[in-house]
Amino acid sequence: MRVIRPAALAARPLLLALFLAALGLCLCAGLGSGSALAASAPDAAKASGQAKSAKSAKADTSTTSAKTPKDGQVGKAGKEAKPAKLTPVTDVQIWSGKDYSRIAVVLAGEVQHHWQLLPPEASKDGLRRLYVDLDDTRIKPGVPGRFDVRGDVARKVRLAPYKPGVTRLVVEVENLKNQQVFVLENPYRIIVDVQGQSAKARAAEDKADKDKAASGKSAEPQAQPKGKGKTQAAPEAAAQEAAPAETAPLLATPGRKKMARQLVEQLGLTVRRVMVDAGHGGKDPGAHGAGGLVEKDVNLRIARLLGEKLEKMGFEVLYTRTQDKFVSLEGRTAMANARKADLFVSVHCNAHGDPGSSGLETYSLNLASTPDEVRVAARENSVDPRRISDMQKILDELMHASKLTESRDFARAAHASALNQAKRGGSARDRGVHEAPFYVLLGAKMPAILVEVGYITNPAEAAHLRNEKYLDGLAQGLAEGVRAYKQKIERFGG
Ligand SMILES: [Zn+2]
Prior knowledge:
This protein has helices at residues 13-25, 47-63, 199-214, 234-242, 254-266, 295-312, 329-338, 371-381, 385-398, 404-424, 459-466, 468-490; strands at residues 2-3, 37-38, 87-97, 100-107, 113-117, 128-135, 137-139, 146-148, 154-163, 166-173, 176-184, 189-196, 273-278, 316-319, 343-350, 360-365, 430-436, 448-455. It is an alpha/beta fold.
């Protein structure tokens, strides 16, 4: 995974602006707009989908976004009457890995945006361009305008004034499979996710096409790899060969078993790499607990213990942070996607004004249905609980791309074993498995959960959360949950 730094040529804003203006002139006006969301669409033909989401987003803004220009920032509400005050773009952050990039444009306040994915024929270099126009904005001096991403999907990213008061973000992409553009708040940021088709998948498709073409003359035999020599095409060939095993009973021969295992891996039904996410950090302490206990410290301690235990079990472990440092919520998911983690576990402590509240609860991504779920999501997202119900409509569309069912299964497995261990430590009321719209889980390409290990605001529970032995047990329980989930999905492979 690479966190992208600005390109050296960032010092040519005028040329760039001219280029972008020229580019824009050849193209029709943006279709999608909305202060809150544009949706995912697999190709340009679905650009009308943006208009649809724009509508729902507009309905949304009428009740929420437009009503509160904050701290002198004027959103669209003020623009008819007087010249709009321009909201600064304060930062651009990019994470990129194989087949995936995430771009976050951070703003000093709420703005309207419009985006469009241009059809391939609009460019002659094989690249497609996705642009996002930000109304009534300006680029804060010092914010770089050009990034060489050189990823498998996103190639280049540029940010420049497009016309007076409008800033345009252009993302050059290739091998694009799908894209999502959405908004997170506090700070207000527009997130662009682009996912590509992996080289492996492309090769498999090409091969399938070739096989199809060849199959007119010679039927099955060529699908049977001869000899034991390994070639690059071998995994695909093996997968193709193994595919019928899904419907036929598996014979217990070593060869069959191996093929089945390969199939499971091909389908991504295995767990090797786990991203462990210690919630909060650095300038974001999380919740403050009884006796001065701070959530970010407890989360980090558990995350490290969890990582150690997972490594002992043979997993490859990645961390979003291993120190007391700030990592944005969208950055955490982006790291997991860019590094192609198979599972994502976010560790948190709960908090409540009532010191009597206690217990362990585990979440996966979905709409919240109870006030408690809304409360927890609002706290972890750093937004007002009133914003959660507005978010729900918006997130609904984004969640189709997430592994909701798998995440729920994973949450159940992790919850059961974590609870079991926590009970041995003498505490842990079972608060159950829940769903809520967490920013940190949004856009994750793998089963992803958030565990609230206990209430840091409950004096008795806070005492447990200071106790190394208790934390060790919790981490052991979570690790066992990961292993149980892995075993469950791999059982498919026989
Ligand atoms: Zn938290």
